[in-house]
Write a structure and sequence with these properties.
By secondary structure, the protein is an alpha/beta fold. It has 4 domains: 184 residues, Methylglyoxal synthase-like domain (Rossmann fold); 32 residues, no CATH class; 154 residues, 3-Layer(aba) Sandwich (Cytidine Deaminase, domain 2); 115 residues, Cytidine Deaminase, domain 2. Helix content is 38%, strand content 18%. It contains 20 helices and 20 strands. The chain has a 6-stranded mixed beta sheet with strand order 8-13-12-11-9-10. Helix 15 links the parallel strand 12 and strand 13. Helix 4 packs parallel to helix 8 and helix 14 runs parallel beside helix 15.
Length: 543
Amino acid sequence: MAVLRQKIALISVYNKEGIADFAKSLVDLGWKIISSGGTAKRLSAAGIPVTDVAEITGMPAILGHRIVTLHPKIHGGLLAEDTPEHLAELEKYKIPWIDLVCCDLYPLEEEVKNKNATRKSVIEKTDIGGPTMLRSGAKGGRIVICDPLDRINVIEWLKNGEPDREEFLNNLSLKVEAIVARYCSIGSEYLSHGAYKGIFGQENLECAYGENAYQKPANLYTIASTVLTARDPLAIANWKLVAGNPMSHNNLCDVDRMVQTMTHIGAGFEKNFSAVPEIAIGVKHGNACGAGVAEVGLRQNGRSPTSAEIEAIDKMLLGDLRAIFGGSVMLNFPVDEKIADELIHKFSSEGRRLLDIVAAPAFTPEAVEILARKKGKCRILANQAIAKAGLNSLDHINRFRYVRGGFLTQPNYIFVPSIKNQDVILAWAIGCTSNSNTITIVKDGGLYGNGVGQQDRVGAAKLAIFRADEANNGKADLAGATAYSDSFFPFPDAVEVLINRGIKIIFSTSGSVNDEKIIELCKKKGINLIMLPDTEARGFYQH
């Protein structure tokens, strides 16, 4: 502006934690503070000079505090451009130029999630003044702050002389528009009973390409959320790349699938055995090709942690030594030199096993050195939240999937059965996070064969057995093994295939017109058949 003047900040927040410190920092830099209602009282109580909005507008809050800042003397100060015409109008109507607006929004999302929410309570928690101030400030090119995490950044930026001003302000404005858009969509979705739905995300990283080289661009977006909503510690963006090349699209899909399988195994064991064992899973194209769990209670029986971890890894590797080559691994325990050596060299006829991804809670420097591949081809990922992840680690956010011209939504995969058999729980957790149709065979805490993505149950059963045989010199010992089917058997034929290879426990769902025939066959053959209703326990995944 042509004349030097005191800069003005408009502060109006619902959550007042830390707001006094922010306002004081501005005052120390020579700023004047305008505020209203509870925010003004909080700042005054902290000894911070503040001018009430009512002194600017000449009007008190009206309509039960519904209208406070919705006034030309506020929005004129946010929307005016630095032109002679606009400045003259501001002077004529005694409107102050407002340089900064700091505002969070009423907790609409929290109210919508409240099981006791009503239409009236949701409307009352729908902010009007806040979004309007933020968007006016964004359009006017002002400093706009809707995320408390940005307050410190703004103060540091001001102290440093406002470098890269246009880019800095633009980034703040983009965040405002995205958060306000999502905020409005939350209200729309609730009030329309789901007839309208929005999906909002922020770019986290750019991949070289998608599933195939010609599919460009490809990006990972993190789902936008209010600043008050706790971020998921196991979200893919929260995995730290310790070593290796940047993650590809396919790498990210594998990590997402491994997290699902790992958390389902942990949740199943915690629910049924009150403990999460040491778990190792290996995948190829998202589906488990090997998995192993240490027997629950090994540590309590005096066995060392490393011994249990090695047991889980060895069971995982032996699931399919051929498939795991070039595959991805996830562990729920830290990786040291001994664990890394086990992963790379144990049972490896080639001298060294190549892995694309190794993900675990943490890695020692020695472990990273052992696991690393030339040209960074082994991505090493760390996230402490995967350590002994159990029931609380299941993903409860609704899933969505693009279909031509639209997208599908559904609740996440959160069903966990109550069955006191470790092999059954392991088989279920693997099978219900593998591409349907699936039959999964487990024995002694290890995955033997995973027959995924088949069009019929017989094919899935034969594939599971084939994979088990291929991994065991052509003939796996399946006597006493456990099989899981992710839905009911339409005919007894697939059950006969499993029984003929020595499977003794079968977990499936009921709902077939031939349920009675299957039950009778299992009774006749001495098979322990566990059935839950298909409507409750069907385990289809990534259909």
